[in-house]
Amino acid sequence: MARSTPKKVLIVGSVALDTVKTPFGEVRDALGGAAVYSSVAASYFAPVQLVGVVGTDFPEKHLKLLLARNIDLTGLQRVPGKTFRWAGEYEYDINKRRTLSTELNVFENFRPHIPEAYRNAKYVFLANIDPELQLKVLEQVREPTLVMCDTMNFWIENKRDALLEVLKRVDIVLLNDEEARQLCNTPSLVKASRDIRALGPSVVVIKKGEHGAIMVTDGAHFSAPSYPLEEVADPTGAGDTFAGGFIGYIAATDDISEQNLRKATIYGSTLASFCVEDFSLRRLMALSPEEIVARYCEFKQIAFFEPL
Ligand code: AMP
């Protein structure tokens, strides 16, 4: 898949124990967190350096799984206390999610410290954390080629100024359709992506759940379909998985051209489609490069139509 030596990807975000219930099953205290989903997805393309925090209760077996995927955990702080926990429930319409609880635990006092060995990272993904912390990360990295951030409705409502500061300093922002509408106060995703680009990022990627994703760059609008899955077991982490696949592919190819960003969007969608096939990271951990390439090719077929 990669043409040149893959550059490293630095990923900062939550490492969690998730309790998730969907109409098709449930898991309790399963491995999760935005940094975990995105790191595992990115690791299929490039070496990953993870920054996050866990408590003393975080199972050793999870650390082993991440290490086995060539994810550098030097930047994972292990501190006294309980690991961040999130619980959510999905309706029969799997796009509808209800957060049942968010226990910040050790995440509450998380201050990202970027180890010296990570500071030259060329590709940086600031997963969904407090935008003030995202800014602290940017103060510690030297000369990244590309910085991408994610966010969520809570920060749009409660830390807008800090978020606007982050947006001035990133190249790509990734958000879901609801967040884009909320950030720009418009129902139109076309207008929202234009307005967000005016705030700083040259590329805006809007994820639309089971309806795919759009990527807006300077003058170009790219629509990626979603993969037509017959069964979705658990959509948790799909957005983070998309992000990891997207930036991992870009780091692997070290190419930020429009054409390559389009391929990255499809790789992101490919990885996300695997993520939702099972609970937690079960499916995502067990992929082969061949499966990824085969599904990428199917995407091409899904979106193909004859020219005039
Ligand atoms: P997604 O389904 O892509 O929105 O991501 C879900 C993941 O985000 C889960 O694994 C959660 O542990 C994690 N998560 C949920 N709420 C938060 C939060 N407030 N801050 C950071 N991570 C969170």
What would you note in describing this structure?
Helix content is 37%, strand content 24%. It has 11 helices and 13 strands. Strands 5-4-1-8-9-10-11-12-13 form a 9-stranded mixed β-sheet, with helices on both faces. A hairpin with a 5-residue loop joins strand 11 (203-207) and strand 12 (213-216). The longest helix has 18 residues, at 258-275. The protein is globular and about 65 Å long. Bound molecules: adenosine monophosphate. Residues 14, 16, 18, 32-34, 86, 102, 128, 236-240 line the site of adenosine monophosphate (AMP).
Number of helices: 11
Strand content: 15-25%
User: Globular, elongated, flat, extended or rod-shaped: what is the shape?
Assistant: globular
Strand order of the largest sheet: 5-4-1-8-9-10-11-12-13
Major sheet size, sense and barrel closure: 9 strands, mixed
Strand element count: 13
Keywords for this structure?
308 residues, alpha/beta, 9-stranded mixed beta sheet, 24% strand, binds adenosine monophosphate
Tell me the layout of helices and strands.
Elements: E1 9-12, E2 16-22, E3 25-32, H1 34-42, E4 48-54, H2 60-68, E5 71-78, E6 85-90, E7 97-103, E8 123-126, H3 131-140, E9 146-150, H4 153-158, H5 160-169, E10 172-176, H6 177-184, H7 189-198, E11 203-207, E12 213-216, E13 221-224, H8 238-253, H9 258-275, H10 282-285, H11 289-303
Parallel strand pairs: 1-4, 1-8, 2-6, 4-5, 8-9, 9-10, 10-11
Antiparallel strand pairs: 2-3, 6-7, 11-12, 12-13
Bound molecules: adenosine monophosphate.
